[in-house]
Structures
1.
Amino acid sequence: RQELFYSLYLAALTLFLVWGTAQWLLSREPLMGAFAIRQALALGYSLGYMGYSKVFWVDNPFVATPDTLTSTLIIAFVASAYRFDYLMLREHRPNRWALRTIDVLWKLCPVYYLLMLLGETRMALSINMGFVLLSPFLALLTACTARPSSAFTDDTSPVISKRALVSIYGLILMGLSVSAFPAMGLISAVEMSLQGFLFYGLVSGLTLLLMLQVRAQRLHQQRSALERQVHVAEQAARLETQRRIELGSFLAMLAHELKTPLAVIKMVLGAPSATPAMITEAGRSVRDMNAIIER
């Protein structure tokens, strides 16, 4: 039964990874790229946690042991989760100090690796675990300080509401509690909590995937609406350009047709003494001008 659970779990993570990678290739959004990296690292550390990495391990002093590789992937996964949270929450303009704290957390990854190189792997993982426990609380608190949708204009409003954002991070916090509290000895471990990190990876991955899917659909709707507005504006601009061209052509034609009658009238008015024939010709020119105007 455990092998079946592991197979379904890895299949789900692979599906999340494929979806995130495809969305990133289509949109090139940093948030989608961060999700794809997060899921790739989640799949990697899950393979190590389940013991599958030992199948590919060779006894070589220059190759990291499976345990070291798994520890490395866990730290990288946690850092990628911090980075994703930072990019996600940044769209909602929360409290800047809370957001900066999350930004600092993912940048601590090199410090953990330095501790591992110094032989303090247990210390690095313990500190990392402490920040893992802190991260969902901080992310939830940061989400609570996000601006409501009414504070944004239509062009800058995030596609995910503040209420949905807080609910998402509340679910992630619940999923992490199943794994982190027993791991830190805060509550007694039960059978379900022994697989807590796997449960957290699955819950958080599925929750974020659903959120990103809704976000992608709404972004697509916004882009479609914007494209329609641009199309209408371009069409109006083309009609205005055409109207000006037609108006220019009309004025050019009108000037051409009025040029001869006006020349005759000017000649009559400029003559020292107008003869009856000249007056008759001027009257005919005036009638011609009236006919042109009334057409």
2.
Amino acid sequence: PKAVLKTYYDTAAVNDLEFHPTVGLLASASKDNSVKMFDILSLQKSSGTGGPVKKSMKAITETCNVRSLSFHPCGDYLLIGTDHHIIRLYDLGTLSCFTTNLTAPVGATSVSSSHHSGQINQVRWNSQGNMYASGSKDGSIKLWDGVTGQCAKTVLKAHNGTEVCSVRFSKNSKYLLTSGKDGIVRLWDLVGGMRELRSYIATTVTHADRAAGKNYPEQKYRLQACFSSTEDWVIGCDERSNTAVIWDTRNASIQQRLTGHSNVVRWVSASPIEPLIMSASSDYRARLYADSTIH
């Protein structure tokens, strides 16, 4: 195992992490109602390894739990999703905060229809920076115009009415990958008007599910999903088997289960350039799966 280069401290549980796209910053979203930005380039100036860094170089204080964050591709702006139902956009140069446009989109019945009605579980920009997506505890997925802040599209009850856990754009921004507490990962066609193309299922519906009136394998935890580096695979989590699951993107067949964790796999992330997958679990371990273990 590699030595720990540096430990960055927050004052509460960390919900989300993201590297700045152009400079050496790492941002954290925390349950202490803050976003903190740490200078990772200071590693090069440090003579030791593994030493704690307790002070961030920049911080944003919110009024409630910060669940998710996402840097704009240019690096000048930061989206934040919190326990509040309205998404925040921060100018990182001035730390000015902007909220999504309150003007109702064409066809909306009310101004409130441009906002979520529940906590924001995840926000993510697309690679061009002209659009972002959000998934909420209210069960809906929303697409937003990255320039005007207008809500462009809403899918209600996108995951059988359960909360939406994660949202990810494909590299060409033509598709959106989402996961929900219904235990299903879904692929949406954005060019075709937010039409569902595929569903990826890791486990079967049990008698207990049906007895509870559910025709899907409902999950207890908010689990993530992502694309592989080539986007030939979709990677998600199976709460019931403590594994990460790899599906074929085109036909939704399970290609492999990544084992080794002794508790629920909560998060998966794929390298953007290599066949590497990182998983994080409630067993307090992160595992890296390389090309020798992935086929």
